[in-house]
Design goal:
The chain is built from eight helices and three strands; from the N terminus they run E-E-E-H-H-H-H-H-H-H-H. Helix 4 (99-159) packs across helix 8 (266-281). It has helices spanning 35-39, 58-67, 72-85, 99-159, 164-177, 180-225, 232-258, 266-281, and strands at 2-5, 15-18, 23-26. It has two domains: 2-94, no CATH class; 99-261. The longest helix is centred in the middle third of the chain and has 61 residues, at 99-159. It is mainly alpha-helical and 293 residues long. 4% of the residues are buried.
Length: 293
C-alpha cells in the first residue's frame, strides 16, 4: 500500500512511502544527492527505513536543508516535521520572537541604561556640590582678598610711618568723602546677607542631589519588582572609578591652572582708580604728566 504526499500546485513532485516494504522512494529530480545521503550521518547502501527514526529527527532534517538545493519535497518535509514536533530542537530559522519577548528585551535595555545614567549623574552631583562649596568658593574668596591686600599694600607701608600730625590731616581729608562707621556697618551687613544667600544656594544644590538620588532609588525599586537582572557590582565599580578620576582631574586643573591664574593686578586697579577720579572729579591732576603709552 502506498501513500502519496502532494506538493504545491506549481509542481508534481511527490514522495512515495511503501508501507509493506518500509522503503522510501524519492524522485530522481531530487538528485544530485539523494535524501539518503543528506539525512544519514553515515553512508547507507539503501534508502533509510521509515522505522529508523534518526533519519527523520529535527537535526538530520535541518542538516539536509543546509546541504541540499532547494526543492519542494524537502521543504514540505521540514515544514511538516517542525509543525508536528514543535520542540526546541526545531530549526531556528523558523522560530520568530514573540511581541512580548521584544517588549521584555526593550524594557530590560531601557531600565539598565536608566540605572547607569541616574547613578552616574547622582555621583557627579554629590562631587560637584562638595567640591565647589569646600574648595572652589574658598579659593575665590582668598583670591579676591589677595587682590585687595595687594592694592592696599603700598598705602599701608606708608601710613605706618605717619606722624600724629600727618595722621590727623589725612583723617580730616578722608572724612570729607568717607564715613568709617557707615562703611564698617555696611560691610558687616553685606557679610550676613552673603552668608544667607550662599546657604540658600548650598541647600538648593543638595535638593538637586536628593532629587537625582530619589529617581535612582525608584529605578532600583522598579528593577527589583520587575525582576530585571543587573550587574550591580559592575555598575557601582565603573561609576566610582569614573568619579574618582574626575575628582583627581578637577583638583589638578584647579591647582595648576585656575589657582595660578593671575586676575587683574593691584597696579592696574590703582591706575584705573586714578584715571576715573581724574576724569570724573578732576582729582590727582597736580604734578601728573602725560602717561607713558
Amino acid at each position: 500500500m502506498a501513500a502519496s504526499v502532494p506538493q504545491n500546485s506549481l509542481t508534481t513532485d511527490y514522495i512515495e512511502f511503501s508501507v509493506g516494504g518500509s522503503e522510501l522512494r524519492v524522485l530522481s529530480e531530487m538528485n544530485p544527492g539523494s535524501i539518503n545521503a543528506l539525512v544519514s550521518p553515515k553512508p547507507l547502501r539503501r534508502p533509510p527505513s521509515l522505522s529508523e527514526s534518526f533519519a527523520w529527527s529535527a537535526e538530520n532534517v535541518e542538516r539536509a536543508m543546509r546541504n541540499a538545493p532547494s526543492n519542494t519535497s524537502l521543504d514540505l518535509l521540514v515544514a511538516t516535521t517542525t509543525s508536528t514536533q514543535g520542540s526546541p530542537e526545531s530549526p531556528r530559522r523558523l522560530v520568530q520572537p514573540q511581541p512580548q519577548q521584544r517588549c521584555r528585551r526593550t524594557e530590560v535595555f531601557l531600565t539598565q541604561q536608566a540605572l547607569r545614567f541616574l547613578f552616574h549623574i547622582a555621583l557627579i552631583s554629590v562631587f560637584e556640590t562638595v567640591f565647589f562649596f569646600l574648595y572652589v568658593s574658598t579659593l575665590e574668596d582668598n583670591g579676591i582678598n589677595h587682590t585687595v591686600d595687594g592694592f592696599l599694600g603700598g598705602f599701608e607701608s606708608s601710613c605706618r610711618n605717619f606722624t600724629p600730625l600727618e595722621r590727623n590731616l589725612t583723617n580730616d581729608a578722608l572724612a570729607i568723602f568717607l564715613n568709617a562707621t557707615t562703611i564698617v556697618a555696611q560691610g558687616q551687613q553685606a557679610a550676613v546677607q552673603r552668608a544667607v544667600q550662599n546657604d540658600t544656594l548650598f541647600q538648593r544644590a543638595w535638593i538637586y542631589v536628593g532629587g537625582l538620588g530619589g529617581l535612582f532609588v525608584l529605578s532600583v525599586a522598579y528593577t527589583l519588582l520587575r525582576r530585571i537582572q543587573v550587574a550591580w557590582g559592575t555598575l557601582v565599580a565603573e561609576n566610582l572609578v569614573f568619579v574618582a578620576m574626575l575628582a583627581g582631574y578637577e583638583y589638578m586643573f584647579f591647582s595648576t591652572v585656575i589657582f595660578p591664574y593671575t586676575p587683574i593686578t593691584a597696579p592696574e586697579i590703582a591706575a584705573n582708580t586714578v584715571l576715573e577720579l581724574q576724569t570724573q572729579c578732576g582729582l590727582f591732576t597736580l604734578g601728573v604728566g602725560k602717561p607713558t603709552p
